[in-house]
Amino acid sequence: MTDSPATTTTLRPAELAAFLAARMCHDFISPASAIVSGLDLLEDPTAQDMRDDAMSLIGTSARKLADLLAFTRVAFGASASAETFDARELEKLAQGVFGHMRATLDWQVEPLGVNKPAARTLLNLAQMAGAALPTGGVAKVRAVEEAASIAIAIEAVGPRARLRPEVLAGLAGDGPGEGMHGHWVQARYVNLFVTDAGGRVLAEVAEEKVTLAATIPA
């Protein structure tokens, strides 16, 4: 199990910003490139028989890009000046991202409203749980408010469920080692804002199940 009550690796703000920017660009470039490819097909006079395919590609990719942008604005960004988030709106953001994953989302969050650290934690851990199910499965998201804290528990259950070593390192506040920074930086970011809020984040990997948990002051 990974338990990160405090950060253990010094990270300069400029480095974190660069890694986060690279991660977001990686997420956005695929649907954006697919839209451009679809437009190129529409403009190609020799590919008019593929017009329907091109329109389908553009539509699907545009929806994916819009879903990712809306999700990222809250999960990684400041999201204007909001300090409290409607859990139902957070579910819509998470479901939008899961609509482009093989895994499905089971969202059971009891508090109607959560603070910014809890909102970011819910979205980021939910996305990480979905990514932990490369061949499909169910990511079960639970959250309750108890003893002036919000307790979050997410179980990703399915075949080949796993967390990359760099994700486990990031959640523990460690560096990525030889792993990929794109996977590591999201976990490290979660570690930073959870611990800054006075909370803690945990991860456990078992056969065909990954468990992510966090406790955030309400």
Task: Summarize this structure as a short list of keywords or feature phrases.
alpha+beta, globular, 49% helix, Heat Shock Protein 90, 22% strand, 6 helices
Helix-strand string = EHHEHEEHEEHHEE
Q: How many beta-strand segments? A: 8
Tell me the number of structural domains. Answer: 1
Whole-number radius of gyration?
18 Å
The third-level CATH topology is: Heat Shock Protein 90
Share of helix, binned:
40-55%
| Largest sheet data | 6 strands, mixed
- CATH classification, class level: Alpha Beta
Proper CATH architecture: 2-Layer Sandwich
Can I get a quick summary?
The chain has 218 residues and is of the alpha+beta class. It contains 6 helices and 8 strands, in the order βααβαββαββααββ. Strands 1-7-8-6-5-3 form a 6-stranded mixed beta sheet, with helices on one face. Strands 2-4 form a two-stranded antiparallel ribbon.
Folded structure, characterized:
The structure is a single chain. The chain has helices at residues 13-43, 51-75, 87-98, 116-131, 165-171, 181-196; strands spanning 2-4, 84-86, 104-109, 113-115, 138-146, 149-157, 200-206, 209-217. The protein has one domain (2-217): Histidine kinase-like ATPase, C-terminal domain (Heat Shock Protein 90). The model has no long low-confidence stretch (mean pLDDT 92). Strands 1-7-8-6-5-3 form a six-stranded mixed beta sheet, with helices on one face. Strands 2-4 form a two-stranded antiparallel ribbon. A hairpin with a 2-residue loop joins strand 5 (138-146) and strand 6. It has 218 residues and is an alpha+beta fold. The protein contains six helices and eight strands; from the N terminus they run E-H-H-E-H-E-E-H-E-E-H-H-E-E.
